[in-house]
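User: Here's a structure from my thesis project, written as structure tokens. My advisor, Dr. K., wants to see whether a designed sequence matches the one we expressed. Can you design one independently, without my sequence as a hint?
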């Protein structure tokens, strides 16, 4: 009888220990982001996307990135897009430092068949009135790959342009997410 009681106690202790371990694992470290919450002052409602500075030789790149950030502000839903600096509670500014194209893969005849375009930029999200920086990232780097079509310069250039559009959109989406999370 005594041995049987001992087994019951051990069985119950084992189950209790298993439950406690599961609770401990599921509790995590306590540091998490709650969906729908952000770290931005609720008073900041209107955001103006300023013209980006372009330090590269790629003409029009600043417009491409500004448009991508404007689209992201509209798509994100947290802020309204301000029509001018004066209407805005906060500004998004950018400085495109470099745009580098590198070969990724080659054909049997040593011609590039795939290239990677990498952008490096500074992004600042600041309160307009006080000029207080709410979030910034220096040397923010992102890349996108595209196909090089041998002997088809115009199609390759169209691929590159499409890649730059995707790159600007991806950068805007990632930066917007980081702005809201405070990272």
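Assistant: Designed independently from the structure alone:
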């Amino acid at each position: 009888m005594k041995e049987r009681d001992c087994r019951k106690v051990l069985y119950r202790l084992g189950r209790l220990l298993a439950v406690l371990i599961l609770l401990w694992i599921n509790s995590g470290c306590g540091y998490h982001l709650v969906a729908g919450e952000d770290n931005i002052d609720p008073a900041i409602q209107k955001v103006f996307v300023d013209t980006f500075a372009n330090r590269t030789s790629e003409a029009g790149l600043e417009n491409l990135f500004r448009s991508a950030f404007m689209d992201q502000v509209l798509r994100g839903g947290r802020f309204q897009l301000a029509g001018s600096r004066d209407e805005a509670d906060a500004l998004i500014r950018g400085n495109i430092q470099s745009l580098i194209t590198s070969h990724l893969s080659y054909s049997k005849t040593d011609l590039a068949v795939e290239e990677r375009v990498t952008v490096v930029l500074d992004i600042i999200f600041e309160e307009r009135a006080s000029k207080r920086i709410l979030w910034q990232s220096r040397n923010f780097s992102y890349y996108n790959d595209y196909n090089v079509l041998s002997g088809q310069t115009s199609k390759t250039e169209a691929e590159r342009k499409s890649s730059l559009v995707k790159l600007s959109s991806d950068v805007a989406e990632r930066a917007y997410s980081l702005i809201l999370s405070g990272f």
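When you compare it with your expressed construct, this may help: Confidence is low (pLDDT under 50) at residues 30-36.
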